[in-house]
């Protein structure tokens, strides 16, 4: 019999109950007991939803109040001293590790652990500091507790946990650890804790566990065969049946050692990498290892083509036999919203294309049923829906398709090289040395949000809403003139979100009302969905930028989100490559850039903060991605004359490894988040240099702290050591939308003063 499984499920709770409960606890409105009670109810709701969908193998232990990697550190007793010192309750210590905590009156002040992107997803893990002296002990067997909790409800589950090698690869080396320390060197100390955890599971009657080792899809795992062997040879004898999962990519050469591990089954991501199946089947055939086929995507929201998945599974059955095949999701479903059934504004046709977590559970169950010879209406319906979607896909926008096919090399290039453009821009913009500017947004005040929500609900007319936004733009412009900034922005008050705002004005996108996906902790986003060819029916930002420019003689910078970022922060369509979608977006933005220039805007910023996170996990795939990503940016910005200054902005990640590609974007000016990864970035500048203008962020906007004038001067001074002074721009490290006005005013006054000082000092 073929079985069905799911690797993990969203944590948000129906109606975002988890988010609300957690935030209410943080605000001091509910007790720890109340929060735990809610969490228990949500776990029940999750298990029942998966079980009711007909799934055989239901996960447990994957729920979390903040982040599941953080849970592991906490459960293993890895609590850095700075948290211990705060003398908080266990729950508050846990949250402090995730998000920091400050309560000056009580003498509490501790920063959060570092966050990092989880593989190439937009989910962020919490990376707790480890050092050579880190000790592990099993303080809390969450997997066991939740297994028992489900059992009491009559549901038998498969506990989920990170494997030791992935755990140690994802956590962080603390600041005080020696420079060459790598957490993986702690493996021998960690294995006994895993042994204990798994022994306890087995003794409690657990039959199988899911051990996530997604690190196996990275190049570096191919060198770690010995570590895997050692680890699993130690764990297998005491553990329930082990299934190792490998989401987000292909196992590649690692199959050579995986086939020799003493495990029950190996899971593959066949959504991303269906081609790996043959090779893996051939390797597993002579062994006892079973296979778990991750055919239903945990990453996108498209209805699975069950016939195609069945064909893959049939192959596996032919090779290994039905008893050794499980059909599953490609990864945890944490990257998808809970259910499509709560959406009321999508058309029935749109609904028929989509599948969120609950529907994906139904898909794996239906698929297993079909493989076991059960005819079902659901399977038939799926075939019809997929056929209808294919039909829709054929009705492409030929004008858009033709325009993409006709893209020329010329369109990817500005008219002249940077030095000539720079001269033209100097005359056109007339900026001083060390020009000051900001990244775009200004504080999104309560008034702005209230006006927007009234407008969305129909309580405020379009005219009145736009008037309110114009008033906001007016005061942002006035403030910038007063504080003495050189290159102004309109402040972006009219934008709900830097991607959604554009998606809503472009053809080809749809939006959910409740399609929340976890970004980190209690923060959830609703990614737009690309459903068809993308085009721009009319200008999107010109009226705002022109209005702002009409209020001042100083130059106004237009502000757009770049093609790669729009795509990376949306759910892309699955029938067309990302490259094509990105180029369609680029062409739409290209028209916008040209329209802005024609409207008299002399500087235009096209933000690409998400360009790094789209980078493929395997180095062999980098070139292809970077080529189309860079081309897309260039396509969107090269339609204008030399005297238009093109800016771009990067933040959120470590750009060191793609810095040469950032140079290839050939933006006239880039701003880059530097304040948190200060030294690393300076090294990058030192080794690669940068030929165009550059504004490494001079202060961190992610905290309400006001940087002193001296701090900013010091920062400029350290950067001038590695970058030419006459190419330096002075700006914060990201947009100011999450900040309050008071700290913004003080910080920018200090920034302007420091830039004046730099002008004199480096004249
Ligand atoms: C995440 S990058 C944000 C850039 C945008 N222009 C802003 O200032 O908010
Ligand atoms: Zn930013």
TrEMBL record:
A GO molecular-function descriptor: zinc ion binding
Binding site for L-methionine: 439-441, 492, 607
Residues the record lists as binding 5-methyltetrahydropteroyltri-L-glutamate: 19, 122, 569
UniProt binding sites for L-homocysteine: 439-441, 607
Keywords associated with the record: Amino-acid biosynthesis, Metal-binding, Methionine biosynthesis, Methyltransferase, Transferase, Zinc
UniProt cofactor(s): Zn(2+)
Annotated active site: 702 (proton donor)
Superkingdom of the source species: Eukaryota
Positions of the Cobalamin-independent methionine synthase MetE C-terminal/archaeal domain: 434-756
Record function comment: Catalyzes the transfer of a methyl group from 5-methyltetrahydrofolate to homocysteine resulting in methionine formation.
Protein name, per record: 5-methyltetrahydropteroyltriglutamate--homocysteine S-methyltransferase
């Amino acid at each position: 019999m073929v079985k069905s499984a799911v690797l993990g499920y969203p944590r948000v709770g129906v109606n975002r109950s988890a988010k609300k409960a957690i935030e209410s606890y943080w605000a001091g409105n509910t007790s720890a007991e109340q929060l735990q009670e809610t969490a228990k109810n949500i776990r029940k709701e999750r298990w029942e939803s998966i079980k009711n969908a007909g799934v055989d193998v239901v996960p447990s232990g994957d729920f979390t109040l903040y982040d599941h990697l953080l849970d592991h550190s906490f459960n293993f007793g890895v609590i850095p001293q700075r948290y211990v010192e705060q003398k908080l309750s266990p729950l508050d210590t846990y949250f402090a590790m995730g998000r920091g905590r400050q309560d000056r009156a009580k003498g509490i002040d501790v920063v959060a652990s570092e966050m990092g992107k989880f593989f190439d997803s937009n989910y962020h893990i919490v990376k707790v500091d480890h050092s050579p002296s880190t000790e592990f002990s099993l303080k809390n067997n969450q997997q066991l507790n939740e297994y028992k909790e489900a059992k009491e409800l009559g549901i038998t589950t498969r506990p989920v946990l990170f494997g030791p090698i992935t755990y140690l690869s994802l956590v962080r080396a603390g600041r005080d650890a020696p420079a060459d320390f790598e957490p993986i060197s702690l493996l021998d100390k960690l294995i006994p804790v895993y042994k204990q955890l798994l022994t306890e599971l087995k003794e409690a009657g657990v039959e199988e566990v899911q051990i996530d080792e997604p690190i196996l899809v990275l190049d570096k795992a191919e060198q770690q065969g010995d570590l895997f062997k050692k680890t699993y040879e130690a764990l297998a004898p005491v553990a329930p049946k082990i299934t190792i999962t490998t989401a987000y990519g292909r196992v590649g050469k690692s199959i050579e050692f995986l086939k020799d591990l003493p495990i029950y089954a190996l899971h593959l991501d066949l959504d991303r990498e269906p081609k790996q199946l043959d090779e893996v089947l051939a390797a597993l055939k002579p062994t006892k290892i079973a296979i778990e086929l991750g055919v239903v995507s945990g990453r996108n929201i498209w209805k699975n083509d069950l016939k195609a998945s069945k064909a893959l599974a049939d192959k596996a059955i032919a090779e290994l036999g039905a008893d050794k095949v499980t059909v599953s999701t490609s990864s945890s479903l944490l990257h998808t919203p809970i259910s499509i059934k709560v959406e009321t504004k999508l058309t029935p046709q749109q609904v028929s294309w989509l599948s969120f977590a609950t529907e994906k559970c139904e898909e794996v169950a239906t698929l297993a049923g079909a493989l076991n010879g059960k005819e079902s209406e659901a399977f038939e319906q799926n075939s019809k829906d997929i056929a209808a979607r294919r039909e829709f896909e054929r009705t492409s926008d030929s004008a858009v398709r033709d325009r993409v096919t006709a893209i020329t090399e010329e369109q990817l290039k500005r008219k002249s090289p940077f030095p000539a453009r720079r001269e033209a821009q100097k005359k056109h913009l007339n900026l001083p040395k060390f020009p000051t500017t900001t990244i775009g947004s200004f504080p999104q005040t309560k008034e702005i949000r209230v006006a927007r929500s009234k407008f969305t609900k129909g309580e405020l007319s379009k005219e009145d809403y736009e008037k309110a936004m114009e008033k906001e733009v007016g005061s942002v412009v006035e403030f910038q003139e007063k504080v003495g900034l050189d290159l102004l922005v309109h402040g972006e008050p009219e934008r709900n979100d830097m991607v959604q705002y554009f998606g809503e004005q472009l053809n080809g996108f749809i939006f959910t009302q409740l399609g929340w996906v976890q970004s980190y902790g209690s923060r959830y986003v609703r990614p737009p969905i690309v459903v068809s060819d993308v085009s721009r029916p009319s200008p999107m930002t010109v009226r705002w930028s022109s209005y702002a420019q009409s209020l001042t003689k100083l130059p106004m910078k237009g502000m757009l989100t770049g093609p790669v970022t729009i795509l990376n922060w949306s759910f892309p369509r699955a029938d067309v490559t990302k490259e094509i979608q990105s180029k369609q977006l680029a062409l739409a933005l290209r028209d916008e850039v040209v329209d802005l220039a024609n409207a008299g805007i002399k500087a235009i910023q096209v933000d690409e903060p998400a360009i790094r996170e789209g980078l493929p996990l395997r180095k062999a795939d980098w070139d292809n991605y970077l080529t189309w990503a860079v081309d897309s940016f260039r396509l969107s910005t090269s339609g204008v004359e030399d005297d238009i200054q093109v800016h771009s902005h990067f933040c959120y990640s470590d750009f060191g490894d793609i810095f040469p590609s950032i140079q290839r974007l050939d933006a006239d000016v880039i701003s880059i988040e530097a304040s948190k990864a200060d030294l690393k970035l300076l090294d990058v500048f030192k080794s690669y240099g940068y030929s165009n203008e550059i504004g490494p962020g001079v202060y961190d906007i992610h905290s309400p702290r006001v940087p002193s004038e001296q701090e900013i001067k010091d920062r400029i001074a350290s950067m001038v050591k590695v970058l030419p002074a006459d190419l330096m721009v002075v700006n914060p490290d990201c947009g100011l939308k999450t900040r309050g006005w008071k700290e913004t005013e003080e910080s920018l006054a200090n920034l302007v003063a420091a830039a004046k000082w730099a002008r004199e000092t480096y004249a």
